[in-house]
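Task: fold both queries, return tokens.
Query 1:
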Amino acid sequence: MQGHRSTLLAVCLALGACAGELREPETTVPMPTAVAAAAPTSCEPAPAAAPSRHERRRRERGPSDGNFVFSHFSAGVFSTIIIQPATYFIATRVGETGHGLGPAVGALVLGAFLPPILNYTVQWAVGRAVAPGRDRFWPGFLVNQVSHLGIFIGAVVGGADFRNIGHATAIVLGEAFLNSGLATMTAELTRRPRPTPATATTEVIVPVLEFKF
């Protein structure tokens, strides 16, 4: 019995060794690792483009003023209708006095430069009364002067008779609306920047009560 037990033990050991050799080695599969992180997404809006120089100047000038435009233009139209015939009459009278080129040159100078000075001064004064300090004098005046010179020179070269009511009326009405409109548009587009309003401050006074016992 002892001999069979030793034989059985040897057989079991041999079978265990064979089973160990036949068993396949375990392989370890490495877990995949992230090689690159996803690009972070931002929900913030893209910064707005910086406003242009023209846009910044337009914002600084502030919104248009309809009351100023209407008053400025109306004053120019009515002043031209009243002042223009009077200046043309004075220029015609100066040209008819004396002899030589002196009176004629004087009449041309009066007719070319006096009406814009008077007309736009009235426009500027009315606009200043409606909106003090809003417009500059020189831009509107220069546009009015150039426009008047173009019409006046064209009328003189074309042979217009300022003593003729029909010719004078056509010239005066044309200048009243054209020159005044251009001057008002220029005054509105070249207006001064609006003043920055002062920041309102609130002062709170807290009373302190003192009790004595």
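Query 1 returned. Query 2:
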Amino acid sequence: MGTLVHFKNLYTEAFENCKPTIAVVILKAYSVFCALMLMMAFYALTDRAINGFEF
């Protein structure tokens, strides 16, 4: 649990004093997009591994 709090603190500190607000919005949206892509890749890998699909 401490690791998640640490990552949350790093994420909020990264955007703390960033002046162009449009850059902050774009970077936050991009980070959410990357997280979704990583979750989909992990799901696809586990789904293939569980169902026995050949790679």
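Both queries returned. Flag for query 2: The first helix runs from residue 2 to 14.
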